[in-house]
Every structure is written in C-alpha cells, then in structure tokens.
Amino acid sequence: MRRQNLWIAILAATATLGTTASYADFVDDSQVQLKLRNFYLDRQIADAPQNNWGSWSQGVTLDAKSGYQDIGAGIQVGADLLVQHAFKLNGRDKNPDFILPHDGNKSKDNFGKVGATLKAKVSQTELKVGELLPVSPVLVFDPSRQLMTTYSGAWLESKDVKDTKLTLAYIDGINNRYDNQFRDLTKFAPPAYDNGAAADGMYIAGVDHQFTPEIGASYWYADVQDIYRQHYVGANYKTKLGEKAKLDSHVRYFDNSDSGDKLYGKIDNQALSVGAKVNYGAHTVGLGYQQMFGDNAFPTLGGWVPQPYLVNWGVATFTAKNEKSWGFTYGYDFSELGAKGLNATAVYFTGYDADTNGKTNQDSNELNLIVNYTLPEGKLKGLGFQAMYIDANFDYKSDLQEYRVATTYTYKF
C-alpha cells in the first residue's frame, strides 16, 4: 500500500498513460528507495589555512522509478521521481565548500532539489525526458558529494541492434552538486570558470559495440554549443587469466576543440588514456598512463563535473596542458580473511611536465586511501561506511589534505 500511495502523485502527472484498465505493471514493477547519507568532508590547505573548507551534513533522497505501462501500438510509458535534500550539521561558514550552497557570507543550513523524468519505450529503444543521470564518456552525473549533480534534457538510447547501443541526447541544463536549480551550461577553468557566457545546449551522439565477449569499442561526439566540441574513441579488452585472475584494460582518446562562437576562446586539447587492472582472488592491481596534447587543458563543464573516463583523475585532475601522468592502484577484499563486506584501496598518481598557472614543467602527485565496509547481513544489512584520505601536492599551488567520512543506508519499499 505504501508503494501504491507514493505513486498516486506521479500517476497524476503522467496523463499520457491513457485510460487502461490496470496500472499493475506501472506500480508492481516500480522500485522505490529511501537513501540516507551522512557525509563529512574537511579540506586543509597547507599554505593558506584561512581558505580551509568543509562541512558535515545529512542527506535524504527519495528515488522512485516506476515500471512501464503499455498504452498500445507497442509503446510503454512510465515516470521517475528523484527528491534530494541535505541538512547542515556543522561546517565552516566563511568559505564555500562546494557541497552546500553559499551566498558569499555563509553556507545554507539546508537545501533540496526535485527532479522528475518521463520515459517511453518501444522494444529495446527508450526515451527519457526531464532530469537525467547519464553515464557516458562525454557526460556523467556526479555522486561524489552529498547531493548528486544531474542534468535536464532528453536522452534516447537503443539496444535493438544486437551487441550495439546507440545514443542520441540533448542537454539544456545542469543542477550541480552544491545547487538547487538547473542552470545553463558553461565551461570550467582554465582559462575561465564562468565569464557569463553560456551554451544554448549540448548535443550528444554515441555508439557502443561489443565485437566479442572480450572486445568492445565506442565512439561518442558532443557539442557544447559555442564552447567546445568533443570526439571520443575507446576500446576495451577483458579476459580471464587462468582460473582466478581477470584482466580489464582499455585505451581511450579524446579530441577537444572550440565550437561555434568560441565563447571561452580557442580550445585545442587531445587526451590519451591507457589503463589496465588485474584481479587475482582478493587482490586488484592497476596501472594507468595519461597524456595531454595540444594548446590547452582538458575542457569540462562548469559546476565541478568530473571525467572518470580519464584513467588518472582525482583532486588533482592531471589534465593541464602537456601534462603526463601515471596512476598505480592496489585493492584488497578482506572477505577471504573472514571480514565479508570490508575492502580497502590505495591509489597513487604522479603528474609531470604540466604547463599551468603561467608556469611550465610543473609536477604534482596525489595519494588516495579508501576503506569501505558494508554490513553483509542482519537487520541493518546494506548499511555502509566509507573513509577516505587524500594527500595532494603541487609545484604550482598550495598542497592540501582532505578527509571524507560517509555513512549510507538504503531502505527499499
């Protein structure tokens, strides 16, 4: 009954469902989750402690995804609802923490955002219109802070061709992680963060094809109108190495250039990213190499949007002009020692030859230590804990240390 009552509001806004005899599939196939996240972040700037920032907050998210209702002619429709809210428990008011909104004097005590998505499906082709949480080489949503960065627009995805996924999309707004409304698309630094120039929208097209169970490839194109264009080509190879070992490797290449009226000036960047991970029992070892080419740094959208399809990405993004970087990863799953649900990961990045902040041949490095534990059973099964330590060092700006602690729990209706 709770699930049915929850969907009454969504059904009222989904008149396109028509007057069918039953909404059983729409309700019974729905997935409704209440997600709780307690999040602490503290960033300490070595040479400028007055610029330290961070906060402790509690987030509550209602994530409701309907099933599909057949309205005839092979067309099925549905609706999703995402309600996010965060409450500040403690934090520094002077400096923005990019987790909670800041008005120039202090951060807000609480803020929230609501997004809805209408969806329609024919066979294996699905159209979503409204709030979007894409995962693609050219655009990804960001769950790394308290509330998620999401987008508005239309996203069409088809899997009707065997072993192939085709994607077409149009994005007209971003609701970033420390905001409560959709805003126009801009470009992040360098060379400019927000000079008032905004794109009319972003066009996306992509194709992913799995040639064999081991080999896959992708091509994606994006145009943030009058700011930058992006071509992406990637290939991945996965295979077993004996009975216990698995290899997961990839090669990725981005070609970035300015678009249309060049609202943020000339953009010329190419990025090569190569990575491989080997899993053997409880152990995972990874190695990544990344290199920037061209006259500029790698472009990203304003609003602190990450690019996880670059193999070396952290607080130090390793995307400056001419920058080269290596990344080393080691992870261990403690299940084999009887601690089911516990795992730890260490990541070390080192970058060099970067041209940034008016300086050349600049170096940087970053260490990430991450511990995760999820209760595997009991009444609180799924309760998760994460602790993260970041130590980043730069030639061209102040070093920093960052501490993150998150507690998460999801209740499924």
Shape type: globular
Number of strands: 19
Unreliable segments of 5+ consecutive residues: none
The helix content is under 10%
How would you spell out the order of helices and strands? HHEEEEEEEEEEEEEEEEEEE
Roughly what is the average pLDDT, rounded to an integer?
92
Structural class: mainly beta
- Biggest sheet character: 18 strands, antiparallel, barrel
Strand content: over 45%
Based on CA atoms alone, the radius of gyration comes out at 22 Å
How far apart the termini lie comes to 10 Å
Short overview:
The chain is mainly beta. The chain contains two helices and 19 strands.
Chain-wise SSE layout:
Layout: H1 2-12, H2 24-28, E1 31-45, E2 53-65, E3 69-72, E4 75-91, E5 110-122, E6 125-132, E7 150-158, E8 164-175, E9 202-210, E10 215-224, E11 228-241, E12 245-258, E13 268-280, E14 283-294, E15 324-333, E16 342-356, E17 359-374, E18 384-394, E19 400-412
Antiparallel strand pairs: 1-2, 1-19, 2-4, 3-4, 4-5, 5-6, 6-7, 7-8, 8-9, 9-10, 10-11, 11-12, 12-13, 13-14, 14-15, 15-16, 16-17, 17-18, 18-19
